[in-house]
Write a structure and sequence with these properties.
The chain has about 220 residues and is an alpha+beta fold. Helices cover about 30% and strands about 30% of the residues. It has seven helices and ten strands. The termini are far apart. The structure holds zinc ion (ZN).
């Protein structure tokens, strides 16, 4: 019962881990929400149906049942604070999840130990998934495959403003290396971008990039 006594000093790596829990999730998990019950009951079978249902997504297990997501730690910030009882450490972890095929989510969590905090950030990210509007929006390309964006999009967080633009095939991800994993997990291969503000702050840069990708989706979703 003293598992909390062991202090973990494991540092957060940038390695990708598969969050798939094949088999066990279906048997053990009992949904509490209306959406969860519909997914387990087979009434909702796909992510499109989930989005169309407009029901609140509150259980990450729902997402595990519908699709396979990879996650990647984008930023870990350790904050030290002096209190009368001594030194206290808190970590803030930012994580992205994606299926490499147009689905992306961003999640943040705070906690004392990095390991469990990453897990909670992943769960938050799963509850925030959205569809990125991909496409081949570059007039120089015209291949018609969804390797880039359909059109230009802008995102902001703090002082950082990111503009992402469609690029032709073979350009690659022309964006800061600290946020490249976000585009990879979203399934985007080619992009042009420029950014203003303090892009050294990975957290704000990452959030602004996700914001830009989310805005690209809104343009389409507004019609229906
Ligand atoms: Zn193209």
């Amino acid at each position: 019962m003293s598992s909390g006594a062991r202090r973990s000093t494991r540092r957060a790596g940038r390695a990708r881990r598969s969050t798939r829990r094949a088999g066990t999730a279906t048997g053990a998990w009992v949904p509490k929400t209306r959406l969860g019950k519909k997914v387990v009951g087979g009434e909702i079978k796909s992510l499109d149906e989930l989005f169309a249902s407009n029901l609140p997504l509150k259980e990450p297990e729902i997402v595990n049942l519908l699709l396979e997501l990879e996650d990647e730690v984008i930023d870990v910030k350790i904050v030290q604070r002096m209190t009368d009882s001594g030194r206290r450490m808190t970590s803030r972890v930012a994580v992205v999840v994606g299926n490499g095929d147009g689905i992306l989510g961003f999640g943040v969590a705070k906690g004392k130990e990095v390991g469990p905090t990453i897990q909670r950030a992943v769960e938050h990210a799963k509850l925030n998934i959205f569809e990125v509007r991909r496409g081949c929006g570059s007039w120089e390309c015209g291949c018609g495959r969804p390797h880039s964006l359909a059109m230009k999009s802008i995102g902001k967080c703090g002082s950082v403003e990111v503009t992402i633009k469609p690029a032709p095939r073979g350009v690659g991800l022309v964006i800061g290396s600290n946020v490249k994993p976000i585009l990879k997990l979203a399934g985007i291969e080619d992009i042009w971008s420029f950014a203003r503000g303090n892009t050294q702050c990975t957290f704000n840069f990452a959030k602004a990039t996700v914001d830009a990708l989310r805005n690209s989706a809104k343009i389409k979703g507004g019609a229906t």
